Amino acid sequence: MAAAAELTLLEKSLGLSKGNKYSAQGERQIPVLQTNNGPSLTGLTTIATHLVKQANKEYLLGSTAEEKAIVQQWLEYRVTRVDGQSTKEDLRTLLKDLNSYLEDKVYLTGHNFTLADILLYYGLHRFINDLIAWETLHRLPPASLKPHTHHRLPAIACPEPADHCALPSWVLALLCSLAL
Amino acid sequence: MRLFVSPGSPGSLPVLAAAGRARGRAELLISTVGPEECVVPFLARPKVPALQLDGGNYLFSTSAICRYFFLLSGWEQDDLTNQWLEWEATELQPVLSAALYYLVVQGKKGEDVLGPVRRALTHVDQSLSRQNSPFLTGETESLADIVLWGALYPLLQDPAYLPDELGALRSWFQTLSTQEPCQRAAETVLKQQGILALRPYLQKQPQPSPPEDKAVSNEPEEEELATLSEEEIAVAVTAWEKGLESLPPRRPQQNPVLPVAGERNVLITSALPYVNNVPHLGNIIGCVLSADVFARYSRLRQWNTLYLCGTDEYGTATETKAMEEGLTPQEICDKYHIIHADIYRWFNISFDIFGRTTTPQQTKITQDIFQRLLSRGFVLQDTVEQLRCERCARFLADRFVEGVCPFCGYEEARGDQCDKCGKLINAIELKKPQCKVCRSSPVVKSSQHLFLDLPKLEERLEEWLGKTLPGSDWTPNARFIIRSWLRDGLKPRCITRDLKWGTPVPLEGFEDKVFYVWFDATIGYLSITANYTDQWERWWKNPEQVDLYQFMAKDNVPFHGLVFPCSALGAEDNYTLVKHLIATEYLNYEDGKFSKSRGVGVFGDMAQDTGIPADIWRFYLLYIRPEGQDSAFSWTDMLLKNNSELLNNLGNFINRAGMFVSKFFGGCVPEMVLTSDDRRLLAHVTLELQHYHQLLEKARIRDALRSILTISRHGNQYIQVNEPWKRIKGDEADRQRAGTVTGMAVNVAALLSVMLQPYMPTVSASIQAQLQLPPPACSVLPTNFLCTLPAGHQIGTVSPLFQKLENDQIESLRQRFGGGQLEESLELKAKASPKPAAEETRKTAGPQEIQTLLEEVTKQGNLVRELKAQKADKNQVAAEVTKLLDLKKQLALAEGKPLETPKGKKKK
């Protein structure tokens, strides 16, 4: 998903009515937002953080110093690791790491749903669908699909806490087994 | 909370600085772990620094740890800081970690290290200078500064990697480096060992994947259409409408060209090619062709321009060549000077003067500069221990000695410089020296010589560089080379040689010595000008009014940027010194190097026999000009670029534009009624034209050529979208539209013909003839796109400009010039690392090898004669004769001569 589309989606889910226009910069197509007052902002996580503040939903950035740092850490992880992974081996390590991190957590900060969950979900979405398509193709034994409920993840829509946007461990376990 | 660090991990720098800056280190427990220890339980790979929080969670991102320390001290997050940190993680880190790996683990230096990060450094510098505040996010230093400082510190703490031209970055970096928390972090992490302290850690890391470097690719980049403001469009339209009238009057031609007060006076030199060798394509692009493009551009800007060059004729290599060919050195010079002049004429090089260095003026000016240096105490006299080959009965010039480098142990170091580590060597310091001619070991003998006292001149040089470099267009490699010379400290350099063929030394006791080319080759520019006009001093002793541009390959930088300026400053005669030193990297041939002796590569005199026009050669060489990094000549690429860029893009556009005028409008430019689409095209072309000017003003010749191709791509699209060939058959409005599009297109073609003039002068002239472009528009390139072919203008006969290159044609050329390409690449691989710096692109490699073979033949011949005289065993004689014949065969091959029939034997 192009960064601009992702940000538009985020705007909607944050309840921001007036859509912004984004341009893209350079070969990596980094999104740029021209703000009305002040200089332009460059970069997916920078703009996303800005939008959250605009929507007065600062709680999505974490409430304690610890949470804030963790949110920004996973946002960075999203743009460097998830977007930067190039080989299957990379993807495998990444999913394994995430899976073991989330083993004892509901969301990335622990108990609170944040922007980091949204963007990481968006970022992983394409792999998830790819992998599931791949799995269907290869008719993996159902044993590797732990909870048998969802074979295909819901399409990205408005992320509401406790709905479908967190990355429950089972998704990652599933992904890991597929990527291996 | 507990911070885990590992000795030498670069991430410790920002983390420790942030801890010190934001909260003091009191409550922080620091544990040191090995580089391969997995601290963070959920990460499969080791990652330090990492911070274990009191709640048990971990922060493993360097910036997040820094951010956390700042948050604890009450700092509030803001957009600008987030933007810098995101940029640091996504843009800076990939290139920076590659650069650090090259530097620390692989021991690379210079541009290899700086190249990948240059764009990022420039970005920081520009942001700092644009916002006009001392720190990244405002008036005080904050999180973004600490994170970036920490990331950059390992590299920038070595001044060699902190480019002078990035002044804002430099002062930002220095300010932060002196602050207490940063200073302490640096001491803790680098332990006063400098960059080497990072080695134990970085060695254990996987090599970062090399950052994608756009410049490596010869492919045209996807152009993004810039967004244009209404204002920009309006300005472009106004300029266009003024048309020919707004052209400045043409400069009257003067002869000789002399500086004019109040005008921009541009003096351009290209490195003097060494006379005893036919130049190859690498020599041509590095100097004369690059300088020619700039000279032609300079004239199109109506700057008062003088472009000079000539052959460098003195020295050992000429003497040797003369011996070889049985001529006097003067005869050799005469012969080869003509060969050079012919080649450059064929390539359409627009010298105002192409002179030579063996003239009385050279002697006069060199001796004058020497006398002034001598009387001011800048010349030392000393006894020199010199290598003398007793077998060849002569003192060995540096180039004729080879041995093991005393600094790095490289086995094929030359007598003056090591190709591997680049250090200068005194020939007698070489370990295991060998005479390159006869391979015997030379002995050390002493001889009196003169030295230029460079250490005494260093301060003046620094002062001059300090004034000249900022804001000048010296290429980064030239700045780097000079900076590293200065960092190592200057030493006295010997300026005399035990030779006959050179400028005599006007001093008692030195009658049988001459000046070394180190000292007098660059004085050639002055003497060549003096042979052109007796008012040469108006160019060369006029630093206030003259802008001196010097073009060369990077191996010539020390002579032009350091030795000559030192001589000139010491002579205290108000000499004009180089203002813009433009140095290229090396051009390789296919996958190897140019080599005369192996018959590999295309040499100046052969290019004309290929049937490919000079302009196509010019275009391709300029398209792959080694600007910023080495590049390679490739036959296949040449075919591709000719067929795609010249034929299908540029040629196609210009031809269509002209043909529409001829076919649909009887050769008469139609009325143009501009719509908003046309105005937009006009503004885009104007923007690209201005970009072209910006690049060429900085002598970024290769990049500016891309602007030309971009404009013609816009033009092709414009025609394709508007389909004038269909509209011409439609109703009145459609026909008018066809007219406007055709008129616009042919005007773009006219503009392209002028922009193309520096690159392809013959093609440019034929476009201008086909379009009957009014003469004033042919010789001036304004900064705006003007309507130079107004409605009603009658054009001439339009015909195709370029020919397709066919695969089999190119394949046969590749075979003809390829030589033992495969063998050579195998040989290169066999030598493996380290790759010797492009020796073959130096001027005198070919003759040296021939000379070596020649000496071996003579030696072997003597041996055979001796054996025969001693009436030695027949089998032994026969074996030696076979060796002799073999050597003769190699020599003939190397010289490209037909094989001689062995004499003697056949008589029997």
UniProtKB/TrEMBL annotation, chain A:
InterPro entries, sorted: EEF1E1, Glutathione-S-Trfase_C_sf
A cellular component annotation (GO) from this entry: nucleoplasm
Top-level taxon of origin: Eukaryota
GO biological process: cellular response to leukemia inhibitory factor; negative regulation of cell population proliferation; positive regulation of apoptotic signaling pathway; positive regulation of cellular senescence; positive regulation of DNA damage response, signal transduction by p53 class mediator
Stated name of the protein: Eukaryotic translation elongation factor 1 epsilon 1
Taxonomic source organism: Oryctolagus cuniculus
Automatic annotation (TrEMBL), chain B:
GO biological process, one term: cellular response to epidermal growth factor stimulus
UniProt region (Disordered), positions on chain: 201-227, 828-848
Domain of life: Eukaryota
EC number in record: 6.1.1.10
Primary location: cytoplasm
Enzyme class: ligase
InterPro entries from the UniProt entry: aa-tRNA-synth_I_CS, Anticodon_Met, Glutathione-S-Trfase_C-like, Glutathione-S-Trfase_C_sf, MARS_N, Met-tRNA_ligase_1, Met-tRNA_synth, Methionyl/Leucyl_tRNA_Synth
Gene Ontology molecular-function annotations: ATP binding; methionine-tRNA ligase activity; tRNA binding
WHEP-TRS domain location: 849-905
GO cellular component: aminoacyl-tRNA synthetase multienzyme complex; cytosol; nucleolus
Pfam families, alphabetized: Anticodon_3, GST_N_5, tRNA-synt_1g, WHEP-TRS
Compartment(s) where it occurs, according to its Swiss-Prot or TrEMBL record: Cytoplasm, Cytosol; Nucleus, Nucleolus
Keyword 4Fe-4S in record: no
Annotated catalysed reactions: tRNA(Met) + L-methionine + ATP = L-methionyl-tRNA(Met) + AMP + diphosphate
Record bears the keyword Cytoplasm: yes
Homology family: Belongs to the class-I aminoacyl-tRNA synthetase family.
HAMAP family, sorted: Met_tRNA_synth_type1
Protein name: Methionine--tRNA ligase, cytoplasmic
Organism: Oryctolagus cuniculus (Rabbit)
